[in-house]
Structures are given as structure tokens and as C-alpha cells.
Amino acid sequence: MAGLDADTLNMVLSTLGKYADRKLTPEFLLKLDHDDEFPREVLTELYDPSQIGLHLLFLPEAYGGLGGGAYDVYRVSEAMAAIDLGIATGVLATFLGTDPIAVGGTEKQKALWMGRIAEEGLLVAYGATEPQAGSDLAAMKTKAESVTEDSKVTGYKLTGRKQWISNGGVADLYTILALAPGGPSWFILERGAEGFTQGKPEDKHGIRASNTAALFLEEVYVDADRLVGGVEGQGLVQAQAVFGYTRLMVAAFGLGAGWAALKRAIPYSQMRIQGGAPLSQKQGYTHKLIVPNAVRLEAARAYIEWASERLDGGEHNLPTEGAVAKYMATESGNKAAEDAIQALGGYGYTKEYMVEKIKRDVRITCIYEGTSEIMEWTIARDRWQEHLKTKGSYYTDWADRLMQAHADHPDTGAATAELALRALAAVLERCRLERLTRNQHVLFRLGELIAWVETAAIFAERVTTHPTPGIKLDREAHKAMARIHARDAAMKVATEGMRWVIGAGTTGEVGATGRSPLLALAPALYAAQAGLIADMDLVAARLAEAFPA
Ligand SMILES: Cc1cc2nc3c(=O)[nH]c(=O)nc-3n(C[C@H](O)[C@H](O)[C@H](O)COP(=O)(O)OP(=O)(O)OC[C@H]3O[C@@H](n4cnc5c(N)ncnc54)[C@H](O)[C@@H]3O)c2cc1C
């Protein structure tokens, strides 16, 4: 397995925690947010090897780094986001900006640039997005014209504009995607290059402690050895090749920020007396504002851990799993923060209680590194191919595996997740028969259903064997969470799956009980909801114990 040993990871996390307790106090962070200020000295200290050396985690040992794996990146990213998502974004940008070199660079480029990033603690920025090219990077306009001498390419002149670049105004080093004669390619650019200027910091909704700026390139000359990989036209492939990792990182941001909000709401609910008792004892409050959020976040965590273990085990990239993880964790984190404001009532709406800031900060995770809609599309497109390739057995085979998990552990929701997988397979098959994915909305909604069902299956499969290190809850509480999430996923497919199949279809699913596999599953999908409220009661009680006032 790639990655740090447990002691080293724990040391990094503990050093980070102590640094945050000392320096990154709520007052300090609220002031940065208020003043819209990028705290360069914090990044410098985080990167200083004598303090934490956080950037080293992401760099291979061969180039002076620590060689952290995907699991380490997830744990540290979650911890960073729980402290401050703006500062976490500054760190992410260095990781992202280094990636084109790590994935596509020649050995010489890796040794030079990753060595310098490790040794000098350079801040890096990743310049892909343009004013007209966000989700659709292929629409980019920034050009790299080749400069030749004796018909040999000796360099490039870069001209164009980049938009919304994290660390854009403050980085030492930039990786820039530009259209070379042979196609999109990454170039390495240093601050101060002639013709290269940076815009003023954007005045943002959240993550105000991060610097986001436009980049302007006017015939900026770079030598040919700054073309990443030395071959033109590899840029989009190189950008795609890192999504499995970078999306896991942003997923962990959603997890960290979501839990940071809940960890404020849960203790608050035990102190706040309304209607003669603490809010934590009122189902109408806990079962709406607290429990569903904790459940979704832990389902996302199980999936993130599963994907990161696979990456560290040597599987490559896993873009679909990265997309499921990002989608579930960031949407769940965003909802958790939104509900935490509600849970604190009027206090939640003020700055002092932090949940308002967390909510503004976490919102970005549903946008950068691919929007939630692009995640839905990616998930649906990729799994649709699996459905076709396997002639419909991709999810029924998975359901068969869940039957075994249920036999081994009947109290994890595996039987309900199994039903959800079979219902999902039936929805996909109905879409195939009636060619419903020609409707983009149906395709994207399939992406959502798939994310819910896959997280339910993984949560149920892993809950008995894998500890969840981030949240200290006992196994019984985690199993109850897995059962709740499996019921939610099953109900989503039963209702929404049916809705889109009927809403877009022509042959009529309703009334065809005898012929329709989906309708045939409906009674069992509803029956699986039995015990839901009791499980929610249990989770609400255990969360209150875990996070006392
Ligand atoms: C604070 C911040 C930091 C950022 N940091 C970086 C960075 O460091 N480097 C970098 O390169 N970029 C960065 N970005 C850019 C970010 O990745 C993009 O904003 C994001 O990918 C979305 O692109 P866009 O803004 O052009 O929106 P668009 O692509 O125009 O999307 C607008 C809306 O349309 C939807 N949409 C788009 N395409 C489709 C479609 N085909 N079908 C249906 N719906 C669609 C989207 O989901 C979204 O809801 C950052 C952005 C922000 C705000």
C-alpha cells in the first residue's frame, strides 16, 4: 500500500491540530474572512518543514517529499477543511498545480520542479479555467505559439487569460493549460515572467482567506523545456488523469467543513432550551437538521475511504469513484452547513457562531474541481457504459455480493442496499429499452441515484470491518447510520427512479406490475423503511453523547 505509516500520519495531524489551536483561532479566522485577506504567513508556516511541511505530504519521496497516499491526503484535507476552507484551498492549489508535472512531466522536469517545490516551499497555482471555458475546458482560447530556430522548436509564446485561479495572485510557480500547435498542453511558468500579470483578488462569497485571481498572458516566452512532458497535445489527458485524487481531496473538504458545522450544532442543541426541553431531545429538530446530515456525511466518508484504499492499492485514477465521492461529500457538507445555520436559529445567522462562515466557505466545493452537475454527468455516463457492457448485470452482480454481506452481518442495511441496487439496475434497463438517456435531465438524475445507491452499498459493506477515524461513534451507531442511508437510497430509487422513467417514457410503467421489475420491487423498497424512526432516535442520542455541550 502506498502512503504514510499510521504514526507519521498521526504526527502530521496532531502537529496541524496544535498549530491551528495556537494560531488559527476563530477570532483570527473571522478577521481574515472579514478583511478578505490571504494569510501568506500561515501558508509559509504550514509549508515550513521545521513546523509542519504540509506540502511535502503530496510530493513523492524521490523528490524530497513524504510520499503520502490518497488516504493520507483525505485525512489531512478533512482536517484542514475543518479548520478553514480558505486556507485549505491555498494548500489544494499547490497540490493541483503540481499535478500536471507529477502526472505528465519528464523525469528531469519532475526532479527539478518537484524538488524545488519541496525544498523552497513554493506556492503553486493551477491555471486551467478561462472566462469562456470552465466545465468545457476544450473551449479554451489561451494559445501557445511555437518559437523555432533552424526549424527546431526552442520555446513558446503564451497569450490569453485565465479566470478564477486559486493562489493566482500570490503563487511563485504556475502550471498553465494552453493550446499549442499539437493541441492542449501544460506549461510551467514562474512569477515575474515578462508579459505575465495577475488580476486583483476576487471579492468572493466564501473562502475569503484564499486568493483567487485572473491571470493575463501577453506573449509570455517560455523555453521548450517548460512544456510538460515535452510532447504537445497531452494537456487534457493529463488533467483527466488526476481527477481521481483531486476530487477525493475536495470530497474530504466537504466532509471536514460539513462536520465542522455539525460539531457546532450538536452541542448547541443540548444547551438551548425551547418548549421546556433541550432541542436535542426534539425529534422534529434532530431528525430533520442533525441526523440526516451526519448519516450522509458518514456514507460519503465510507466511500472516500474505499476509493482511497483502492488508489493506494495501485488502481489507477478511478475518475468515476472520485466523482461519486466528491458529489456526495460536497453536497452533503453544503447541506449540513445550511442546516447548522437553521439549527442555531438567529444565532446561526450571525458571524460569531462560525456556521454562517462555514456555509459560505463550503459552497465552493460544489463548484470547483468540477461542478455537481458535471459530477452527475460523469457518474451517469461512466456507469451507463458499464450497464451496457455487462448487459445490465453491473448492479445486479453487486447486489448479489451484498446478499453475502447481509448473510454475514444482517444489521448493516446490506439487504436494503441490495434492493436499491436491483431497483437501480431496473431503472437503467428501462432507460435503455426506451432510450430515455437522450434526455439530459434523466441522465443527470441517474447520476444522482447512482451516487446514493453506491454510497449505500459501500457503507453497508464496510461498516462492520472498517473504523471511521474522523468521528468517534460506536459501531452500533454507525450501523444504524448505514441502515438509514440504505433506506434513503432505496426510497430515492423507488420514487425518483420511477418518476423519471414514467416522466420521460412512452410505454407506461404504471399499471404494468406483472411485467415491470421496478414496480415489482416497490413493496419491498417500502417495507425496508420499517425501523427508520427507531434508528434515527438511536443516532440522535449517540451524536449528543459524542459531542456534548
Ligand atoms: C473560488 C474559486 C476557485 C477556483 N480555483 C480554480 C483553480 O485554481 N484553477 C482553475 O483552473 N479553476 C479554478 N476555478 C474554476 C472552477 O473550476 C470553475 O468555476 C468550474 O469548473 C465551473 O466553471 P464555470 O465557472 O465556467 O461555470 P460553467 O461551466 O459555465 O457552469 C455554469 C453552470 O452550468 C452548469 N453546466 C456546465 N456545463 C453544463 C452542461 N454541459 N450541461 C448542463 N449543465 C452544465 C454547471 O454545472 C454550472 O451550474 C475556481 C473557481 C472558483 C469560484
Keywords:
3-stranded mixed beta sheet, 11% strand, 549 residues, alpha+beta, 9 strands, 4-stranded antiparallel beta sheet, 19 helices, binds flavin-adenine dinucleotide
Spell out the helices and strands N to C: HHHHHHEEEEEEEHHEEHHHHHHHHHHH
The portion of residues assigned to helices is 55-70%
Strand numbers in spatial order across the main sheet: 2-3-7-6
State Rg.
24 Å
Provide the list of bound ligands, each named once. flavin-adenine dinucleotide
Helix- and strand-based class? alpha+beta
Morphology: globular
Number of helices: 19
Biggest sheet, in brief?
Answer: 4 strands, antiparallel
Number of strands: 9
What is the average of the pLDDT values?
Answer: 95
- Straight-line N-to-C gap: 40 Å
Q: Estimate what percentage of residues fall within beta strands.
A: 5-15%
Low-confidence stretches: none
Walk me through this protein's architecture.
- The protein is an alpha+beta fold and 549 residues long.
- 58% of the residues lie in helices and 11% in strands.
- It contains 19 helices and nine strands.
- It has helices spanning 6-22, 26-35, 40-47, 70-83, 85-104, 107-120, 235-240, 243-271, 283-312, 319-343, 345-348, 355-362, 372-389, 394-408, 414-434, 440-462, 475-504, 517-527, 532-546; strands spanning 124-127, 143-149, 152-166, 173-180, 183-190, 196-198, 212-223, 273-274, 277-278.
- The chain has a four-stranded antiparallel sheet with strand order 2-3-7-6, covered by helices on one side. Strands 1-4-5 form a three-stranded mixed sheet.
- A hairpin with a 2-residue loop joins strand 4 and strand 5 (183-190).
- Helix 9 crosses helix 17 (475-504).
- The longest helix is centred in the middle third of the chain and has 30 residues, at 283-312.
- The model has no long low-confidence stretch (mean pLDDT 95).
- The structure holds flavin-adenine dinucleotide.
